[in-house]
Amino acid sequence: MRTHRPSDLGPVRPDGPALDDTDRLLLEHLSRDGRASYAEIGLLTNLSATAVRRRIDRLRARGAVRGFTVVLDPALLGWRTEAFVEVYCRPRTSPEELLASLRQFPEVAAAWTVTGDPDALVHLRAADTRHLEAVIERIRKEPGVQRSRSSVVLSQLI
Fold this sequence. Notes:
The chain has 5 helices and 6 strands, in the order E-E-H-H-H-E-H-E-E-H-E. The protein has helices spanning 21-32, 38-45, 49-62, 95-103, 129-140; strands at 12-13, 16-17, 81-89, 108-113, 120-126, 145-152. The strands form 2 sheets. The chain has a 4-stranded antiparallel sheet with strand order 4-5-3-6. A two-stranded antiparallel ribbon has the order 1-2. Strand 4 and strand 5 (120-126) form a beta hairpin. Helix 2 crosses helix 3 (49-62). It is elongated. 18% of the residues are buried.
C-alpha cells in the first residue's frame, strides 16, 4: 500500500494542497454514509484505517468537511408541507445576521442568499399550512426581515 506525501497531492495553494483523486473518493464515500468507519472506507479506497483517518482529519482542518449530520426524513416526522419563502431584508442586514435568525427555526431545510429582488430564498418544511403560517410569521418578526413572499409546494416533479 502506497502512502502519500504532501507533495503527491498536487499543486500547493494558499489554503493547502489541492484535493487529489483519493481525497475526492473519500469525500464521495463520506457523502454516501457519514457513519461509515475508517476501516470500512479504507476497504473501499485501498487505504488503511489510519490513513483514512489522517486524510479525513486533514480534510476537516481545511474545511472540505465541515461536519457530520443526520439527514431526517421530513415525512416520517409528519412534516409533509413545504414552501419556498423569498425573504426581503431591512437595509444593512448582513447574511450572517440573517443566518443567525434562520438557524433558530428547525423548519428551515435550507436557505440561500440570491440575486434579484429578494435577499434570500428559504426552504421550509412544516406539518401543515397552519404550522407553516406560524413559522413564516415568526420569521417575518425577526429584526432584519422586512417582508416575505411565499410559494407553497403542491407536488414534487423531479
